[in-house]
Amino acid sequence: MKAALVHAFKQPLEIQTVDKPTLTPGSVLVEIAACGVCHTDLHACHGDWPVKPKLPLIPGHEGVGTVVAKAQDVTHLALGDRVGVPWLHSACGHCEHCLKGDENLCPQQQNSGYSVDGGYAQFTKADANYVVKIPDNVPFVEAAPLFCAGVTTYKALKVSGAKPGDWVSIVGVGGLGHLAIQYAKAMGLNVVAVDSGEEKLALARDLGADMVVDYTQQDPAQTIQTELGGVQAIVCTAVSKSAFTSSFHSVKRGGVCVLVGLPPEEMPIPIFDTVLKGVSVVGSIVGTRQDLIECLQFAAQGKVKAIIETKPLEAINEVFEQMLNSEINGRIVLTLDE
Ligand code: NAD
Ligand code: ZN
Ligand code: ZN
After folding, report:
1. Could you tell me the distance, in angstroms and rounded to a whole number, from the CA of residue 226 to the centre of ligand 1?
2. For residue 65, is pLDDT > 90?
3. 3-state class of 258 per DSSP?
4. What are the Enoyl reductase (ER) domain coordinates in residue numbering (predicted)?
5. Alpha carbon of 58 to those of 35, 152, 192: distances in Å?
């Protein structure tokens, strides 16, 4: 099968022919139709984080496609089912976190396109218990980004505890942020979106943002404090330390700062302000299968729609270049079924 492989960090990916994965108990073989390109894939290929991915690696954790083979013990899926293979490739199912329904926190988890091969390939092997079915009326290319960008921002908004009528800020209007705006609006929240450049800010407005701030023109925290008196919650998806610092200062007293983006840096948090203003700073990592089912329903009901551009697998190195330069509007989705 054709796949894009990382052999060494910070080197271009290579398009190669490799063996199709073989089934093991509890697994299914998914013929990939499309796979979104998440900024996490770029972090993986650069070896940015303290925990490194396996090498060689087939990246991709927004892979969607059709079940074409299944192990004998898999009874709840049928050949032909349309599924997605998310970042949470598998979890142990019996630790404290799994038992509480927080499987995204399982210390034994495997991650698609990181600790195991992912969706930048014609076929991928998935744990049958962790794939999620795609609603019939959501096309593959529009479903793909929901398997990470969608579920992550949907979950982050839930974690923020924001309620209808509250103001939230979405920092970074990229793959994650453009979906965050839509989920926030669908949840009845008021949205201020922060990014740079007319194109991204126009996209944010089109998707329903009530206010936009260009961080290269205005200080976001100061603007948000002056115009809104601070936001109740902020979801920071930007790959930038300064965006995190600014996010902290954008929330009002009692506000919640949800960290989602993963720049490989530390964030300075002032103890005095955190304590006196009762600010919460909380991390949020992808979502559970139930979060994924819910977030896909928003798309099935037409409340959320990923803005996508499709490209062939062979374009992956140019896509990464565009991503590094913040030149992508919405999500780029690699197609594999041609
Ligand atoms: P992306 O490249 O599509 O979008 C990032 C956006 O941030 C771009 O639009 C860019 O212009 C904007 N940006 C950069 N600096 C900014 C600043 N100072 N202020 C405001 N905006 C700024 O990336 P993505 O795929 O949306 O991923 C974003 C981050 O989220 C990555 O670090 C990724 O690894 C991480 N991520 C985390 C989770 C999780 O579960 N927590 C899941 C998926 C991705
Ligand atoms: Zn991702
Ligand atoms: Zn577990």
Report:
1. 25
2. yes
3. strand
4. 10-334
5. 12, 21, 36
Mutate to test the pocket of ligand 1, among 157, 246, 262, 292 (most ligand atoms within 8 A of CB): 262
Domains in the chain (CATH in brackets) are: 2-147+306-335 (3.90.180.10), 150-283 (3.40.50.720)
* Full strand arrangement of the beta sheet holding 251-259: 211-214, 190-195, 167-171, 231-236, 251-259, 280-283
Residues in the 5 Å CB sphere of ion ligand 2: 38, 40, 148
Mean pLDDT score, 150-163: 98
Is the pLDDT assigned to residue 338 strictly greater than 80?
A: no
Q: pTM here?
A: 0.98
Give the tens place of pLDDT for each residue, 164-202. 999 999 999 999 999 999 999 999 999 999 999 999 999
Residue type, 53: P
Q: Which residues line ligand 1 (CB under 6 A)?
A: 38-40, 43, 148-149, 152, 171-177, 194-196, 200, 215, 237-240, 242-243, 260-262, 284-286, 323, 326, 328
